Each structure stands twice: as structure tokens, then as C-alpha cells.
């Protein structure tokens, strides 16, 4: 049975993110290898992964090499660091699908790179990245940045159970 996962803000090849976010790596290459291993430790070839942006700082060839090493059907929702490159660039780099805009998934989850404004009366949950180790309070936001999930994609089952504790799904 295939599963669906979400993850954000890998920043492959971005040496400075190690200091910006206090990531426990000496080099970008060490970080890259660790994050590839973590991804493949949970995602199978049959699974789908929504990547919520800020994927890679490398050129297309190096980015493609990384994308090819990652298991699953990969869907990129472009982040602020991805938007300098075209949708076609990301497809050529190996993503199966690419969106420049947020998506609504299962009629309830809004998948975006940056957090979207959600007032307390909205029934939706915004699954996002962008703010890395920060976190918004409340059940309307779910931060999928790698810093929160030990650099592994998180399944929709885990997300749903974290949002509705002690209730039937």
C-alpha cells in the first residue's frame, strides 16, 4: 500500500543554512547525504511525497542527481528559493509534478510553502514550511520543515493523528 508524505525546506547544497538553523552538520555534502538517507528510510518507490519548497541550491544536474536518488513520486510546491527557476526547470530536474501555487489536498489541507493566513473560523489546516524551526500555535497550522521531523518526510496519517488527538479519524 502506498502512502503520502510531506516535507519542506531541505535546502540541499546550502552551506549557510547549517548556521542559520543550527543544523548538526559540518558541510552541505554531509547534510545532503544524511537527508537523502532519512528520506529513503521512510519513503518507498510507490509512495508520493509533497515537497513544500526550498529544495535545492545546486545547478540542474546536481539537483537531478539528488531527486533521482530519492524514493517516491515527487511533487514540488515551489518555495521562495525555488521560484527563480521555472516550473519546466524543476520538471527537467526530475520532479514528477510541480506547482507554483498552494494546493488543496483532500478538500481540507492547504499545502503551501509559506504559512497562509488562517483565521480561527476556517475549517482548513495549512501544511507549510518556510519558517524552519519556528512554529505557529493552534490546529490550523502544521510546519513540515525538516528541522521538526528529524529530516524525514512525515506521513499524512501522522499529521492527521497529531491534529485530532484522541478522536476517531
TrEMBL record:
Name this polypeptide is given: Metallophosphatase
Coiled coil (residue ranges): none
Calcineurin-like phosphoesterase domain ranges (all copies): 3-132
Lineage: Bacteria, Bacillati, Bacillota, Bacilli, Bacillales
InterPro entries: Calcineurin-like_PHP, Metallo-depent_PP-like
